[in-house]
Amino acid sequence: MTNITETAYPKIRSYITDDELYRVYTPSDEEVILAQANTKGDLSKICFLVTLKCFQRLGYFISITDVPKSIIEHITIHCNAIFNNSILKNYDKSSSKKRHLVIIRDYLKIIAYGEETRIIVINVATQAAKTKDNDADITNIVIEELVRQRYELPAFSTLERIAKSTRHSVYNSYYKYIYENLSVETIESINNLFNIESNNTYSPWSLLKEEPGTPSHKNLKEIILHYHMLKAFKINETILSSIPNIKIKHFAEEAKTLNASQMKKLETYKRYTLAVCFLKQNIASMLDDLGEMFIKLVKSSQNKAKEKLDEYKLANSKVADDLISTLKNFLTAYKSPGTSEERLCAIGTILEDNNIGEIIEKCDNHNAHSGNNYYHFSWKCLKGNRSILFKLLDSIELYSTTQNKSIEVAIETIKKYRRSNKLEYIELHEEQLDLSWVNDQWWKLLTGYTNRKDYPEKIERRNFETCVLYQIMCELKSGDLCIKDSDVYSDYREQLISWEEYHANISLFGEQVNIPVEGKSFVEFAKNKLEQTSLNADKAFPDNEYLRIEKDVPILSRLKKKKQPENLRLIESLLAEKLQPVNILDILSDTEQWLNWTKPFGPISGFDSKLENPIERYIITSFCYGCNLGPTQTSRSLEDLNRKQVAWINQKHITEEKLDKAINRVINAYNCFSLPKYWGTGERASADGTKWDLYEKNLISEYHIRYGGYGGIGYYHVSDLYIALFSSFIPCGVWEGVYILDENIKNESDIQPDTYHADTQGQNTTIFGLSSLLGIKLMPRIRNWKDLTFFKADKTCTYEHIESIFSDEIDWKLIETYLPDMLRVALSIKMGKITPSTILKRLSNYSKKNKLYQAFKELGRVERTCFLLQYISDINIRRTIQESTNKSEAFNGFIKWLFFGGEGVIGENNRAEQRKVIKYNHLVANCVIFYNVYNMSMAIEKLIKEGHKIDSTMLSLLSPYINQHINRFGRYSLDKERAAPELNFNIDLLKEA
């Protein structure tokens, strides 16, 4: 049963503030005149106005006896009337009220609830049920539509009943449709998934849900075996084409929580639907894993080849020294005094002492390995993985996303000769292979020539095979090559909006982000922006005490440290004394009582929860995973709870999406405090990653050179108000910056920043280009920024002071030509069709063929140059970036402190569970931050009343990441009788100052 508090169904609060009474329940002059014209006497007039104002607030009529006394008294006083509350009950049964309802509906142009409205409710609920999973969300969509069309809202029980029945109806129609379109063979195959053979411990269904381990031969063979087993089900691809993708994912998610025995107990149609959706998602997931493992295996071989080159250089360093010494002797002989014949004779003397052929051979070997050319070692380092890589290529279907199909032909060629082990060269006839994609270093190895003018008659087979495998890796990364039916390695263009949708929406989009959307106008706009920014920087240079230019390189002096208030340390010490000791469970309990952040949690199936004390269980589960205690340790630390009960809640009731909703509830309430407003505006956020340790035996775990050790990256967006807005878990090998724009699109909280700060990992020119089209300001802290290129708007532009720092100009024609394609990407992101990270992963340095990548990169050069010019010219920008990124680093330390269980290692090997652990930890951290700000606000108010001088500057230097008062260790207990203190957001901290 859906609780009314879980929905947007309007209701009058029991306690109403004076401000709300004045704003919401004060009748206008027009409304008073309307009441006087349709009533007789004060009693009737007051009842009419109370009914009118309550309806305006609620959208439905309520009994006047249910109206809070404060509203009636407020309206009575406003009308200078005398009113007797004792006779209110007579009004609800009177004919006067019936007449008043008709007048009010007519005045407000509201349509009464009836059969017509009921049909609309059913239709809207049916459509909503196709994308929403629980009755509360369906009810909210219905309410929104009824309000939009100016219909009177029915009783909540009516909406609840219709939401439940339509959801069941929609789900049952899906179940029946899918089952009836399955072949007998497929049904039998699905049945076999739930049976445990006599010689096995687990059912095939359980084995399908196992996560892939490290990219080893054994694991890859098992995944390939599983993949072929899934393909053997021969599920008709058209069966799920009419089912919304969000529903397919929901059914697959529900299936994942059920074991074989539970699946067997499901209603027949539902069982096969869940199984089919799970198999469909599993196929896509396994193809993703195969693509990921292919890349990792080839990358590992490539890294080994680079290591071999380093070893070769080290081992042959003496040979290089000898060659340089010989060259010096030659040059010395050549410069010796005497005639040309005498100098030639001196050179000849040196040659007599050396073997000319040997010197030439040494030179050839040195040149072959110069310029970081590790390709000579590539085949030897790759051949150990050769067999499994070909098995993988046999299992997946690769296709090019461009008109250039040369790589597809190359793949078929290496497959054709894969078993020709004795064949040294592949004979080529009439340019049967397009080799234009082969770089110069590979070309020499493949053909034996440096000249590329003539088409080769043959190519070296082994090196060509290695070269193609390297190219597959690069093109999978860039999106130039895709895997059919994969999710991650699909063609991103298929997720973009159509050109018809583009043309219908682009004008409005341009207005929203305040940019021209026509090519020439946009180029003029961007060129003016770059030129004006350059002029401003040039003009500011003489007065800029922090900037100087030496040898055409801009150099910035260190910022002077701000002087802190003298009594800041004293106030921090007094503040710490007033914070009462508390344990994390009590913090979670108090914040839950205040905010009801567990509200989004509930059965994944969408059915009503049958748990006893669900809130208690949700708090404990959040504590268990958010602090990394794990179910076993949590059950030891808490009474009346076992390990399976804790794990069961995590598996059956809580998903990543539900955790995000809980996090947003905390963020929205946090935004109501006044104290964080001294720390920032909410318009800025900083992004940063921190390494979380993992066990090696899973696909996401990688060795991170910068951080050291195996693990994954927790990536967070932290508001300048100190609260964390977004979290995700990514592999170590991924460039963190590709995720920086995701938060802006996925963020559903009340805090909506438009400016993002990050470190060097959070930027590149492509990200700058895309962010500008999304209306997002990117202002990172860039290491070695002075080594970056400054671009001019035009070569004719000259500057008095900063001319020497510019070294290139923008290709405006490229931007103008591909602007529609870039805007189509941006508009697709805004419309929720694709995430920024999906497109940015494709638009990388590997995208040699992709003109869209080149256009975004060129636009990014404009934006990054503008930013760099502002960065070196404005000291306040530098300070703001420094302060914002410092907050991210402080937050990273804070969440690590809260993640004290399990020695700080994420013990889950399942990737979905790893992501959930990051979300749990994020939720716990935000609850603690909320609790700290509440207590800090109360303590500051007390300190001010005690006579301590506290001003806005001092408040701005405080931080909610304090933990001295929080007990992490010991035996825990959840105090079921604990009552949280009254929550007060309206503390004016400086009113006493």
Task: From the structure above, extract its key features.
993 residues, alpha/beta, 7 domains, 7% strand, transposase activity, transposition, DNA-binding, DNA binding
Can you offer a commentary on this structure?
With about 1000 residues, the protein is α/β, with parallel strands linked by helices. The protein folds into seven domains: about 5-110, no CATH class; about 115-180; about 180-295, no CATH class; about 315-375, no CATH class; about 395-485, no CATH class; about 500-545 and about 765-875, no CATH class; about 575-605 and about 610-685 and about 715-750 and about 885-965, no CATH class. It contains 39 helices and 17 strands. The strands form six sheets. Strands 8, 9, 10, 11, 12, 13 and 16 form a seven-stranded mixed beta sheet that branches. The protein has a two-stranded antiparallel ribbon with strand order 1-4. Strand 12, helix 33 and strand 13 form a beta-alpha-beta unit. Helix 3 crosses helix 4 (about 70-80). Mean pLDDT is about 90; it is low at about 705.
Determine the N-to-C terminus distance.
Answer: 50 Å
Question: Ranges with pLDDT <50 over ≥5 residues?
Answer: 703-707
Largest sheet: 7 strands, mixed
Number of helices: 39
Pfam families: DDE_Tnp_Tn3, DUF4158
GO biological process, one term: DNA transposition
Protein name: Tn3 family transposase
InterPro entries: DUF4158 (IPR025296), Tn3-like_transpos (IPR047653), Tn3_Tnp_DDE_dom (IPR002513)
List the SSEs and their pairings.
Elements: H1 18-25, H2 29-38, H3 41-58, H4 69-78, H5 88-92, H6 95-108, H7 115-129, H8 135-148, H9 156-180, H10 184-193, H11 204-208, H12 217-231, H13 245-256, H14 260-265, H15 268-315, H16 317-334, H17 340-352, H18 356-368, H19 378-382, H20 386-395, E1 398-400, H21 406-416, E2 425-427, H22 440-447, E3 458-460, H23 461-478, E4 481-483, H24 499-513, H25 519-540, E5 547-550, E6 553-556, H26 568-578, E7 582-583, H27 584-595, H28 614-626, H29 630-637, H30 643-653, H31 656-670, E8 684-694, E9 702-703, E10 710-719, E11 724-731, H32 742-746, E12 755-757, H33 765-773, E13 777-778, E14 790-792, E15 806-809, H34 812-830, H35 836-842, H36 851-873, H37 875-898, E16 905-906, H38 911-945, H39 952-956, E17 966-967
Parallel strand pairs: 7-17, 8-12, 8-16, 12-13, 14-15
Antiparallel strand pairs: 1-4, 2-3, 5-6, 8-10, 9-10, 10-11
Helix pairs in contact: 2-3, 3-4, 3-6, 7-8, 7-9, 8-9, 9-15, 12-15, 12-20, 13-15, 15-23, 16-17, 21-23, 24-34, 25-34, 25-36, 26-38, 27-28, 27-38, 28-29, 28-30, 28-38, 29-30, 31-38, 33-36, 34-36
Protein name: Tn3 family transposase
Organism: Clostridium estertheticum
GO molecular function: DNA binding; transposase activity
